[in-house]
Input
Amino acid sequence: MSIESAVERLKAQFGDRCATSDAMRNQYASNEAHHASAPPDAILFPTSTDEVRQIVELCNAARCPIIAQGAGTSLEGHTVPVRGGISLDMSRMNAVLAVHTEDMDAVVQPGVTRRQLNEDLRATGLFFPVDPGADASMGGMAATRASGTNAVRYGTMRECVMACEAVLADGRIIRAGSRARKSSAGYDLCKLLVGSEGTLGIMTELTVKLFGQPEAVSSAVCGFETIEGAVDAVIATIQMGIPVARIEFLDELQLRAVNAYSKLDLPERPTLFLEFHGSEAGVEEQAARFGEIAADHGGLGFNWATLEEDRNRLWRARHDAYYGVKAMWPGRKGYITDSCVPISKLAEAILETKAEVAESGLIAPMVGHVGDGNFHLAIMIDTDDPAEVAAAERLSHSIAERSLRLGGTVTGEHGVGMGKIKYMEAEHGAGYGVMAEIKRTLDPNNILNPGKLVSLN
Amino acid sequence: MSIESAVERLKAQFGDRCATSDAMRNQYASNEAHHASAPPDAILFPTSTDEVRQIVELCNAARCPIIAQGAGTSLEGHTVPVRGGISLDMSRMNAVLAVHTEDMDAVVQPGVTRRQLNEDLRATGLFFPVDPGADASMGGMAATRASGTNAVRYGTMRECVMACEAVLADGRIIRAGSRARKSSAGYDLCKLLVGSEGTLGIMTELTVKLFGQPEAVSSAVCGFETIEGAVDAVIATIQMGIPVARIEFLDELQLRAVNAYSKLDLPERPTLFLEFHGSEAGVEEQAARFGEIAADHGGLGFNWATLEEDRNRLWRARHDAYYGVKAMWPGRKGYITDSCVPISKLAEAILETKAEVAESGLIAPMVGHVGDGNFHLAIMIDTDDPAEVAAAERLSHSIAERSLRLGGTVTGEHGVGMGKIKYMEAEHGAGYGVMAEIKRTLDPNNILNPGKLVSLN
Output
């Protein structure tokens, strides 16, 4: 069967849930970042696991690529249909299927977004902590092993996805993991699927850990005289075991964009956004201990956000950091880096990166989930200026190499997609070949998001 | 090449580090639990990754089974050479290679035992939390995805192994994971190897998370009027989010064995062993909150162990629980069950199990890492009494079925080995076939611990 006839059959079966107009195809051709674009042959909107199975079986028979996507907010070109085929938009599978308050877990369809889930949980006293900048879908977050500002305390999707259902390339439906808090029952297929970027299977259901809303929450912003001071304060905080819920770094340029976009007036200097969770006494104790550390490292005093609405405004501003950057430099595309290193190397990694940014002349504000050793540049490029694009590529390459040299990873939370595939051999050595073997075994026709994550050559 | 000639070549190369005497072969034929025994053809004692590679390459050429083992304390017959071949005793690869205090991780060889690592860490203010009953090896613990009393707070080997080096069946050496706290760089091969029980590769190095010694520690024992009361107190504690470091259940029969073996005189009733970690104030707060919960559920008051030596004595007694049982019923073999269910189902699981034990007339003390929903029976059987063996099998089977029915797993922490292989299809459905496909891909000649975990038929 040809791809054309597969699309025709899907059109007949799914009607207007199978879109083939140029306008729609263009919409699914690219995503938020700078990567090359390519349109799918069709966009499908399944509403059940069984529909996903039918679509996958047909695509497998037709050797037709199939690229699942959620909110389409990934930053490494994961959802670009580089070889055409079907874009599988999971956004209509967006039901919260069960909330087990007594076990602190929830079962969701992949199209549920993180904000939607937390809205649903509001009355339960529980929350789901993983929070990438965008209001991403749970399926997309699982597929890219996403994290965000809370990971330093609550873990990433790696830790928070307990179980999943997935449709494999041959149409088999598997359930991996369970609602038990731990298990030694065989290979951890759930953790294998989390982070596989739609290349091994299409997740159709997720069981995720929830956490109790802390009794007390306290948020603060603290500016520093120098970047070194801010970063060293973070390192000391982690090494002293203060259980911060969030500890985020923003440089002076990022602060300017945040101020403009979110209508804040924070001093434009190296800054940490912090949050403490615990009992009333526990939060006070954490804040006091951090206060001492900050004072030792050139901290310039705290702005506390004690009211819930002030806290929400602050963190919304942090989450909108990238949108702020895009608004400040309209017409430019973001080339986003994603270094993560052991915490002892964080100051070295950040300072060398800042020096390279200064030298390059590029516009590149920095934010970081620094408690995890993870930081990003949003290099804002004029894609029509080859010299600028080349400079951004050099800078990004240098950051990736430094991450590996310092014992870290080229991607802390954004994933491999198209953008990081060239570093996988360097990061994983012989293990990268093992990934390809697993891919070939589970998807012999290479229909699941081909051209991403693994190299089959 | 035949297995015999492979053994001859290994003998020539390794000299007295290749043992073939009957006495030695018998020693490696069985392990702590009730499973059938079978001797290896030879026992090898490698001292480096490269030696492991050489042995594996030779075994692969000769189609010779190779069964890695650490301390030999597994409970599901993992290390029994059911098809002969080479027992690979990793105990001489027992160096702590690096302790990165500033990053709170350590790099160890697989033969390092958990107590050895913690001895090594004593001066650093850090500790490694995963603590199965036995003084197991780190490699064995990683291979079985072990946990223990601290998992409710600090996680299991799944969470605590950040990276590993492994020799694959064809002799390739891979490094999976990194020292960065998080990563989205491709398939999580590290988590795939953790829990793979030596069937996908032989781990030759592990990087593990360490944690800061808590500023304050407080341990207590609390007896309860009824089992229901004890279990309900646990459930309430977890649901209220009290960050207990340890919360362990022992039934009255287990208490009797502990008292006798460890020379304690605790009242022989359903009992919780607890530990709180935190700041001085935090520990006091946790203890007070738990005290209220216990009072509400028929708790009969606390015995506090405030001195470090008293605490160590208490937890040593808990860790020696199984040895206490073996000493109290000498000549019998332990048939150990390992149910883990969602916490909301724990009371149901435990009470039904206790009722079945009473009905069966078997000797079967119960212990449990109840904060994780995990509990064990040590059914002490006379292996020469077929009726008793059959009754134990029926009881064990009923527990496994109940675990699945309640949304849990047939093995919370002991692994699959020989004992649980018959439940894998029921627990994983189509996913079990995927495990077999991965096994065939990475070990096409089925030399790595054949007959364990996966079924290749």
